[in-house]
Write a structure and sequence with these properties.
It is built from 2 helices and 5 strands; from the N terminus they run αβαββββ. By secondary structure, the chain is an alpha+beta fold. The chain has a domain at about 30-95. The protein has a 5-stranded antiparallel beta sheet, with helices on both faces.
């Protein structure tokens, strides 16, 4: 019988947890909206319908692309895209705020 390390189990479980989270959270922005789709289409909808543009980007240990899109009004959407180009909304919300980093000691705020 094979034993998995904690990291191996995490790599197996993480995509399943993400899929379950998306299924429970429901569609992004609208009860009639689509949760997942081709990345180019998802980004176009975020831009045209919600005026959101990409602000942050990163790559997960599973080689998924993680992005956060934000509008000038403060709405935001985070999406995760698999290596095959399928994007799913993970979190949406309102009230996004940029945090100004603290100044160096001795500099005025």
């Amino acid at each position: 019988m094979s034993r998995y390390t904690a990291l191996e189990l995490l790599r197996i479980a993480a995509p399943l947890v993400l899929a379950a989270t998306i299924a429970v959270a429901g569609p992004a922005h609208s009860q009639q909206g689509q949760v997942c789709g081709n990345r180019d289409v998802v980004i176009a909808v975020l831009g045209v319908k919600y005026n959101e543009v990409r602000k942050f980007i990163g790559v997960t240990p599973q080689s998924n692309l993680f992005e956060i899109f934000v509008s000038p009004s403060g709405s935001f959407t985070s999406i995760i895209t698999n290596p095959y180009g399928l994007s799913c909304a993970v979190v949406t919300g309102e009230g996004w705020q940029e945090i100004i980093p603290p100044s160096k000691i001795g500099e005025p705020l």
